[in-house]
């Protein structure tokens, strides 16, 4: 393993025009160990990056280049902020050239190819690479990520739900009834990206609240596969995503039933112990009310535990910025790990409030 | 019972300065059978109503009067849009004068005085009147409301959760496990009224999402008392309210577990049958996604049922405008019933969209 | 002139899928003198109207039909809620069939064909009809509208700016320097319609404010042509539109310089006199602060006049709901006039607040 | 002058509970040359700062202390993020102890005491200190600020309007008619602070737009005094502030009339030249449309110039984050100057978008 502490990591981004793309740019431009060398875009090739994203004016001089830009092969790592299916199509060539891959889409999130193909309606083109890839949820999988060349960066909802459940499941026997888990999740509108769909218009989504994908959302199998792996059991998860009229922010309310053998456990303490040394996980004091704005633009994820009446139901509240810890920030956290630099570098800025 | 179809109902409002107050005014001013004669306010006595609420300019010439305005005694009905405790303090005198009462606060919502006093931290001053009062959820209790002189208008959250559960519970045996009900509820900011608290400021609640009162909310015992009455069983309800950065709108996502004996039931049909003739309940086609904006400013409440994978979990989505069906509109619906005029009069306007 | 007070007006809408379309529908469905018989849409032909606009569920049973629906010819009046250029292409046939036309686009707003073609980049296909058409600003042009068969419904910005200036200009000599008029105008996002453009996305336009079309906006020549007609002089208008992160609402701040001969005029009184009997224009008391929400969803337009320090500058604040008085409401106001029914019918509902 | 490049500046904040206070904290905590030693609050004395502002959790361990905390006297500089009148009451003692003062309120913004007392309704308690203080608009007054011990940090509106006019006024003869300047300004809601007033509630200010203080706003004399000083002439400024439903951001649209002798000037070039080397002023290419979000949370101020039809009117668009360049960021920029460290330190972070 090389130590990049004293030299720059050469970074490329494929598909830099969406919201995870611009957020990656914002973080990487300010990252002291990064040398951003290439950003591709199918549609915007030739355009100055700062002409598309006015917040980057005077901060970046690169233009978007086309997808086949050979400079990608000279990078140390390439981020894919693309639709599903793009990373897998370029992975083999990049790996051959010694380039590491961090995919912010779903190509390397789900190990079971049948499940992947059922939910994403595309054939997986590199099952062998998928096998060697790692799920980039650092707080779950840090030791494997460090050694990996291909990272499947977690989905935004899965990040909150899995991190909210880990302490209850990574036990010899789960502490909760895995047949009875409800995750009621809420996301800001940026979660659906910059797609031109009527539902994303201000006049359609402002001053409004709704559920969506209630019959089934692609993040469902991703969550299930991870929590089944952690708990070693089949789980029954009910997961309903909702859309909140705010730009950024994700809030998951998780409802579980404590098993009889676990009724005497101090769950607050359990969570504090499990995550105590994690730089980006904040277990709030009992009775706290996390808010999405408290982590806006930061890589922090906050958790509060409630056990009303000290009975057998536990409520776990989890909040993050969907574009940072739920996407670009977590991807950079993975990069820092892989390149053996301090995990928090470039990710320490304080949330913007108000 | 008198028929008011051809004469005007003389209406008074106590406490007309909050958001349920102005919404009552908006509806009642436009109600063809209503003669609005008195509006009181402790703080704003002497002020023109339209000076406080600019939308009412040129629509109402009344001033706020003081709480002891004797004209209240000459009304046919008085609405209380006041804090908890006010209606009970004036109820006896009004009833003696033959004035009917519709309380939009909680004084007549909970029959069990111990429960009321525990949650509302005030003594109930007229238990005898409470006994004769009726819970004003029309679709549950219409036949009793018609004959009543005192109505406890339901809370906003209870309206959605109870109406979302009735068809599953008003059976010889409930169709769902009453020990395992989760209601994850979301409200627009107007639900917390016009109180001057930092949490209600635009800069605090815009672009933000959070849960609140997770340890216990006053609407919890109200919901439980009604669904226990309906089902005839003790129920275990987990209820978490959340705050959405929108002015109006409420959305409840209810998670229940179908009992084995009920697995073959067509729940969509069950709901359609139960509510088919209700003018303000809309059971949407299977697969629909209700949105709060679709009922903004209207008295409609919309329900969609989901049963993912046709398994044993049912998800009920319920939406309403918290200030209309969840407060002022429902109160007027009760008034229409009590005065024997068409239930929908004054409540038929179409939701504002976009 | 026929009197429609006792019979229904048969109404058609061409292009009912945009925001002015759905607003027309909302108003016309609730209009007691209207029989809505046909709604066309190029893209949505065959779809139930209520499937596109959930607020209309259970209020309308029509489907969108294709543009060449012959039923249009049997209407008494057809509204065009279409892009510019559609109304003029169908006007001749409709008029031959005795159908009156109210165009919510710009085809009949500007009498000077050269100006029209320069700004709208399309040839005008029926200059003769344009000549006989009337500009549908009721408070300016009521007596001509009554007798007209073709109405060019004003643009949203022009409605506010022209109504804000009329009392100062329709004098033997204008009271203000027509060479020095600034109109700084702000619109909610619905003003740009339901177009699928990135700038209309929630994540792009929420929590943001900007000017647009600063070099020139199509409403500029429309305003200028009317105020030159009123004042009988060439005017120099500086007009800058801005986008506000709200769905509905328009606010224009107009800055003018009082001419020496007019310095002693009581401008508040002047405005009150000019508009005193207008049902939809509210001249607010001196010192008032109009707000867009005070007219949200209503057909009212509010004006407040300021003359700081009683010097030679006058500031006129004008607010309306861009979709109602600025579009669909004003169109229905025109219809009422043309069909000789009370001008306010169907337009009297109170603004929604909060 | 001391050079603090290699040691920490000891910083105190008086009144750290408002929005400019928390923004100061966010910036100063991340500032590599700052040692934050004391934060006072009258109301919150004893509370952990991070309990009031959840974004600061795990970033600061200080508690609020009382106003008379003697540690203030040991600071190198004290920021006042207080209501008007507080800084002047403590200035003398602090200065005696060698502590520099940066006041974010108005105590040291206006040199003319009569004007100050007329607008702020309080007596000025230290006219002698006021005389030696400097107006902290860096781009106007850098050379004097460097040598000063007391800075009056500019108001948010004045920052945009003055910077938008400087290049047109700091000439031997002004290039524009100083008798005819209109500044139509728009601010996000955070500009009015964390005051508990109904008008600041989400339900009152969301989905709404309005003007306020049209008869006169305290920033008017501040702007006028500076631009009269720059131009050497009496000016006639019409200034109307408006409230935008967004948390942060300020946008000023300035309308001026070019004088005959200046009609041939290339104004774009003029602005570029005047501000070319300014690290925080961005003169955008001709035709650009600045947006508030493009500078959200950053210390940048963006200007675009328009001259429609190349005639005699100039429109200047200016945008900034009212809490950063309009308050806390500018204050830190002043601190950097005074302590002789690089002006941009601690202020270089990229705006958050979307």
From TrEMBL, chains A, B, C, D:
InterPro entries: AGPR (IPR050085), AGPR_AS (IPR023013), AGPR_dimerisation_dom (IPR058924), AGPR_type-1 (IPR000706), NAD(P)-bd_dom_sf (IPR036291), Semialdehyde_DH_NAD-bd (IPR000534). It catalyses: N-acetyl-L-glutamate 5-semialdehyde + phosphate + NADP(+) = N-acetyl-L-glutamyl 5-phosphate + NADPH + H(+). Keywords: Amino-acid biosynthesis, Arginine biosynthesis, Cytoplasm, NADP, Oxidoreductase. It is an enzyme of class 1 (oxidoreductase). GO terms for biological process: L-arginine biosynthetic process. It is found in: Cytoplasm. Pathway: Amino-acid biosynthesis; L-arginine biosynthesis; N(2)-acetyl-L-ornithine from L-glutamate: step 3/4. It comes from the Bacteria. One of its GO terms (molecular function) is NAD binding. Its EC number is 1.2.1.38. SMART domains: Semialdhyde_dh (SM00859). The active site is at 156. Residues 10-148 form the Semialdehyde dehydrogenase NAD-binding domain. GO terms for cellular component: cytoplasm. NCBIfam families: argC. HAMAP family: ArgC_type1. Catalyzes the NADPH-dependent reduction of N-acetyl-5-glutamyl phosphate to yield N-acetyl-L-glutamate 5-semialdehyde. Belongs to the NAGSA dehydrogenase family. Type 1 subfamily. This is N-acetyl-gamma-glutamyl-phosphate reductase. It comes from Candidatus Kinetoplastidibacterium galati TCC219.
């Amino acid at each position: 393993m090389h130590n990049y502490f004293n030299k720059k990591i050469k970074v490329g981004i494929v598909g830099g025009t969406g919201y995870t793309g611009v957020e990656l740019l914002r973080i990487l431009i300010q990252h002291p160990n990064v040398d951003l060398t290439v950003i591709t875009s199918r549609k915007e090739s030739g355009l100055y990056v700062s002409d598309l994203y006015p917040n980057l004016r005077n901060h970046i001089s690169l233009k978007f280049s086309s997808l086949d830009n050979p400079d990608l092969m000279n990078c140390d790592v390439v981020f894919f902020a693309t639709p599903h299916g793009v990373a897998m199509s370029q992975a083999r060539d990049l790996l051959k050239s010694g380039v590491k891959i961090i995919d912010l889409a779903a190509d390397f999130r789900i190990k079971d190819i049948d499940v992947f193909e059922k939910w994403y309606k595309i054939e997986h083109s590199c099952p062998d690479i998928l096998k060697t890839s790692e799920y980039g949820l650092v707080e779950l999988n840090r030791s494997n990520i460090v050694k990996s060349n291909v990272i499947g960066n977690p989905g935004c909802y899965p990040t909150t739900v899995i991190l909210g459940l880990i302490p209850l499941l990574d036990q010899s026997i789960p502490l909760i009834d895995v047949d009875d888990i409800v995750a009621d999740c809420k996301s800001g509108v940026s979660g659906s990206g910059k797609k031109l769909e009527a539902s994303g218009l201000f006049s359609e989504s402002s001053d409004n609240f709704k559920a969506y994908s209630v019959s089934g959302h692609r993040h469902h199998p991703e969550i299930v596969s991870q929590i089944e792996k952690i708990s070693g059991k089949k789980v029954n998860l009910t997961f309903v995503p909702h859309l909140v009229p705010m730009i950024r922010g994700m809030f998951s309310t998780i409802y579980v039933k404590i098993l009889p053998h676990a009724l005497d456990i101090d769950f607050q303490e359990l969570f504090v112990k499990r995550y105590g040394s994690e730089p980006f996980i904040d277990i709030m004091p009992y009775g706290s009310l996390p808010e999405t704005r408290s982590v806006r633009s930061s890589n922090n994820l906050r958790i509060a535990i409630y056990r009303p009446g000290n009975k057998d139901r536990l409520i776990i509240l989890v909040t993050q910025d969907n574009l940072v810890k739920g996407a670009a920030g977590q991807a950079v956290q993975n990069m820092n790990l892989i390149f053996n630099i301090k995990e928090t570098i470039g990710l320490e800025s304080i949330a913007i409030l108000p």
